[in-house]
């Protein structure tokens, strides 16, 4: 016990060293919280140590809880993503975000409360994880109707786009669509199909499934009465990519299996070369279901 207490004290001192740093002139001028890479990496390690022992549907017992800087990052990021979604995301996503997930900019979501709400509405729960998981593990979670979510935050230098999915990406991007019935069903189907392909050793087909998942669930766009809107988790929460996708209609392709397999990508480090546009939210789920039935 003394050894654990000493270790926690060291972690607290390390975090305190970074947390005491004042806002830089750059972040102050842009209205951003000061959450530098060094602090983000240290906190990621501390938070992930707590996540390792966290059961599905439960909240990790993070030493000291979330820092003021992290609460500021949540508020700033959520407010910005929510504003971008109101302008550029589809009505179904915005309804699910507001009425389903029901987040507040003033409070980082509690995973236990969120799981209770999600379980009641859709039979799903969230599961704290320590990293962006590989397709094999990710599909296994989905098969059991568990949405894996990290609990750490990106540094302020990656405010617009991060190649390391953080809690904003997963909580604000992935969780809300599970309150849409057709997408909750589709997500479970992705999980069952992916796990089956892993068991059968069909690696090339699994890669095709992952490309389709990215095209729809991560980067998907959809036609709406007011024009093309976003529904993909990654494109909505990467606000820079959201604006990019809306400003470049020449990069929009119809959501058709042949086009997805030819031009789709799983690149998480750059903006997508092409975005795939479905005719409706439900028809996008139908396209995915039919594709999976063929595998």
Please provide a written account of the structure.
The chain is of the alpha/beta class. It has a single domain (2-293), classed as Phenylalanine Hydroxylase (Orthogonal Bundle). Helices cover 58% and strands 8% of the residues. It contains 14 helices and six strands. The protein has helices spanning 2-19, 25-30, 37-51, 68-88, 91-101, 111-122, 135-143, 167-174, 181-200, 203-218, 233-237, 239-247, 257-263, 281-293, and strands at residues 125-128, 146-149, 221-224, 227-230, 252-254, 275-278. Strands 4-3-6-5 form a four-stranded mixed sheet. A two-stranded parallel ribbon has the order 1-2. Helix 4 runs parallel beside helix 12 (239-247) and helix 7 (135-143) packs across helix 9 (181-200). The longest helix is centred in the N-terminal third of the chain and has 21 residues, at 68-88. The relative contact order is 0.11.
């Amino acid at each position: 016990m003394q050894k654990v207490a000493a270790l926690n004290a060291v972690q607290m001192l390390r975090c305190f060293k970074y947390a005491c740093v004042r806002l830089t002139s750059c972040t102050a001028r842009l209205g951003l919280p000061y959450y530098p890479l060094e602090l983000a990496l240290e906190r990621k390690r501390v938070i992930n140590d707590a996540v390792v022992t966290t059961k599905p549907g439960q909240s990790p017992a993070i030493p000291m809880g979330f820092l003021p800087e992290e609460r500021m990052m949540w508020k700033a990021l959520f407010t910005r993503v929510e504003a971008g979604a109101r302008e550029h995301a589809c009505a179904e996503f915005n309804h699910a975000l507001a009425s389903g997930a029901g987040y507040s900019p003033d409070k980082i979501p509690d995973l236990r409360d969120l799981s209770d709400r999600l379980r009641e509405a859709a039979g799903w729960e969230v599961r704290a994880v320590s990293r962006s998981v590989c397709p094999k593990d990710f599909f296994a979670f989905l098969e059991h109707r568990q949405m894996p979510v990290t609990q750490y935050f990106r540094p302020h230098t990656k405010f617009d786009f991060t190649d390391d999915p953080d809690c904003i990406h997963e909580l604000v991007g992935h969780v809300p669509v599970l309150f849409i019935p057709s997408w909750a069903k589709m997500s479970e189907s992705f999980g069952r199909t992916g796990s089956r392909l892993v068991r059968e050793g069909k690696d090339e087909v699994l890669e095709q499934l992952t490309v389709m998942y990215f095209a729809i669930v991560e980067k998907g766009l959809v036609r709406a009465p007011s024009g093309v809107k976003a529904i993909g988790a990654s494109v909505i929460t990467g606000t820079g990519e959201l604006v990019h996708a809306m400003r470049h209609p020449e990069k929009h392709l119809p959501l058709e299996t042949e086009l997805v397999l030819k031009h789709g990508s799983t690149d998480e480090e750059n903006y997508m070369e092409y975005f795939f546009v479905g005719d409706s939210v439900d028809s996008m789920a139908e396209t995915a279901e039919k594709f999976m039935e063929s595998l």
